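Fill in residues.
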């Protein structure tokens, strides 16, 4: 495997943010497993110790390899429980990027802060994934603000949720300006993409402009395109996002409801697009 097509990533979170559930979906959609493991059923791939399956939490870091869009992704699923901080430290030393999973209800919780600052120490680029958008009290925008305020990061949404709580049904891709809907009849393997509807257009345009403004702060190319009133393409946005994610200037934010099989494939796309290969690590 060409090193440039490899990603060494971790998945980190506070306990019960849905980290292992999200990992199981990643393995399912990428073809590593043929059945979705559930934490509640005690049959997940990454939580393999008896004690982990009994308690429904990750105690030691498990590693596995999967493939997505011609890239090899080596995944380390790190513990979310405060008792296992030393195990997280060991994981972070070998990561080239980390997905930080946040609960859309709980937001930035104490262990989220601890692990985040550990990742700062080891200079690990991050993508944020706001999970459990279908839960009562889910608030995507409040979590984005908490990431900014509590973690001192620069979160930049590249998706918006369509609905929340019981009405959560998909996401808006702010880069392609499409709505994405997952088919519940095939475990979310089929995604339908549609142009942004008139109902959501104003919000999507507003947040796409915020995305471009955020990127322009650290990108001369985006700034020049904007000032010259030239078209800013999907490729321009992805290039700037990649550069700024690797340089710790930006944290792309996505959302979903992993348990309901919504939102995971774009997260895999983001891993490939925005995290560095081992030969690109600063």
């Amino acid at each position: 495997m060409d090193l440039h097509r490899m990603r060494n990533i971790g998945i980190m979170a506070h306990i019960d943010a849905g980290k292992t559930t999200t990992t199981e979906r990643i393995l399912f959609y990428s073809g590593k497993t043929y059945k979705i493991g559930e934490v509640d059923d005690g049959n997940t791939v990454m939580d393999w110790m008896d004690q982990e399956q009994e308690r429904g939490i990750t105690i030691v870091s498990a590693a596995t390899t999967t493939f997505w869009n011609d890239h090899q992704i080596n995944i380390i699923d790190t513990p979310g429980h405060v008792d296992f901080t030393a195990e997280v430290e060991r994981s972070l030393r070998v990561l080239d990027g980390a997905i930080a999973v946040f609960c859309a209800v709980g937001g930035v919780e104490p262990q989220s802060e601890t692990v985040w600052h550990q990742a700062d120490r080891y200079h690990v680029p991050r993508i944020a994934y706001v999970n459990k958008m279908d839960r009562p009290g889910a608030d995507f925008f409040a979590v984005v603000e908490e990431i900014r305020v509590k973690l001192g990061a620069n979160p930049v949404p590249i998706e918006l949720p369509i609905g929340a709580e019981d009405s959560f049904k998909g996401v808006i891709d702010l880069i392609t300006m499409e709505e994405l809907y997952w088919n519940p009849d095939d475990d979310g393997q089929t995604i339908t993409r549609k142009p942004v509807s008139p109902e959501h257009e104003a919000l999507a345009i507003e947040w796409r402009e915020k995305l471009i403004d955020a990127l322009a702060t650290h990108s001369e190319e985006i700034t020049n395109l904007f000032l010259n009133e030239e078209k800013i393409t999907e490729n321009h946005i992805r290039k700037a996002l990649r550069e700024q994610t690797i340089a710790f200037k930006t944290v792309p934010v996505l959302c979903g409801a992993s348990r309901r099989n919504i939102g995971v494939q774009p997260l895999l796309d983001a891993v490939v697009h925005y995290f560095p290969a081992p030969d690109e690590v600063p």
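The domain at 3-172+251-280 is CATH 3.40.50.300 (Rossmann fold).
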